[in-house]
Design goal:
Length: about 230
């Protein structure tokens, strides 16, 4: 993976290729339209491609938050099949962090589906981002192959770029756990009713914990979110 490069996308051709790559990742059309990516890039936001030689194999886009907040919101990152699970997501996040710090940004926020274990582990256990909110059906109905047939609930997280990662609660500090399915995407296809049941249960438990002032502070690879 040493040959993989991250490059800013500042040409129309590069922008259109990024839109195509993101469509490939989500198996959908219009995942992140090229005109929106172009507008974000032209306005000075973060729009990059991940390259293996001349081939773009991933893309990421983020935009600045309210001026006084010194934040950036990472909206979308995707890597094509065959390159996932090789640490490239972490390389993109490290690049994004350095890019943001150079521009006076102190925090990056983003959302992720709490029912997807690998995302929960990466965001909470690896990066140490802090959960700030549970967003019910944040994007409405989504029609891509990953999200189709489910409500788009998301956890909002905040990553403090100049602070140590938020620690995972110790066993003594853990007050509860929230189990998640092994493969929600497969379950949506094979048993939509069971997938909907998982969504409702996790939603209720997570909202209750957050309303009580507890912290969603990590992910255990055995398949549950850790509440401190």
């Amino acid at each position: 993976m040493a040959s993989i490069e991250i490059r800013t996308l500042d040409t129309v051709d590069g922008i259109h290729e990024a839109a195509r790559v993101l469509d490939e990742v989500w198996d959908d059309r219009g995942t992140m339209p090229a005109n929106i990516l172009r507008a974000l890039e032209h306005a000075g936001n973060y729009v990059v491609g991940l390259f293996d030689g001349d081939r773009m194999i991933g893309a990421s886009a983020a935009f600045f938050g309210p001026p006084a907040a010194r934040t950036m919101h990472s909206h979308i990152t995707g890597i094509v099949d065959g390159y996932q699970g090789r640490g490239l997501g972490r390389r993109l996040k490290t690049h994004q962090r350095e890019w943001a710090l150079e521009r006076g940004v102190g925090r990056i926020t983003w959302t992720f589906d709490p029912l997807i274990p690998r995302n929960a582990h990466f965001n909470l256990a690896v990066l140490g981002a802090r959960v700030t909110d549970y967003l019910v059906n944040q994007y409405g109905a989504m029609h891509d192959a990953v999200n189709r047939g489910d409500e788009s609930d998301r956890l909002m997280v905040s990553w403090a770029l100049a602070e140590p990662p938020a620690p995972t609660p110790t066993d003594a500090e853990t007050s509860a756990i929230v189990a998640v399915p092994d493969d929600i995407a497969a379950l949506r296809r094979s048993d939509p009713a069971a997938a909907a049941s998982w969504r409702a249960r996790v939603r209720d438990e997570m909202r209750e914990h957050l309303a009580s002032g507890r912290r969603i502070g990590g992910f255990d690879r055995r398949g549950y979110l850790i509440v401190g």
